[in-house]
Amino acid sequence: MFTIVAIMFSGIGVGWLFRRRQFPMLSQVITVLIWALLFCLGVEVGMNPQVIGRLGDLGIEAVVLCVGGLAGSIALAWALWLVVQHKKKGGQP
Predict the structure, then answer these.
(1) What is the Cα 22 distance to its own chain's centre?
(2) pLDDT tens figures, 39-91
(3) Residue 26: which domain range?
(4) 3-state SS class at 47
């Protein structure tokens, strides 16, 4: 854990030191590195027999969490929209 935090803070330090410089290809490099990390994560998950064995259960849990999160987001966005519309019409908060 200390290694991860140290690497993160060293990256922050390097970014701070080079904050005035322009690196035009940096966003493409970061994108490729993120793709490589996601690929390695997929390989690691695919090699784990416990994860593969429980893929059906994990899929069901993921769908339940996704539907719940989506329903909650829609409900709260709708409630916020009602409050904003009520304030626009000059109603009391």
Answers:
(1) 26
(2) 999 999 889 998 888 888 878 888 999 999 999 999 999 999 999 988 887 76
(3) 1-53
(4) coil
How many Å apart are CA 87 and CA 93, to the nearest integer? 7
Residue 93 has pLDDT above 70, yes or no: no
What's the CA gap between 65 and 70, in Å, rounded?
Answer: 8
Answer yes or no: are the C-beta atoms of 33 and 41 closer than 8 Å.
no
Residue 91's pLDDT is: 61
Residues 31 and 72 in one domain: no
Alpha-carbon distance of 74 to 69, in angstroms, equals 9
Tokens 């069901």, residue located: 60
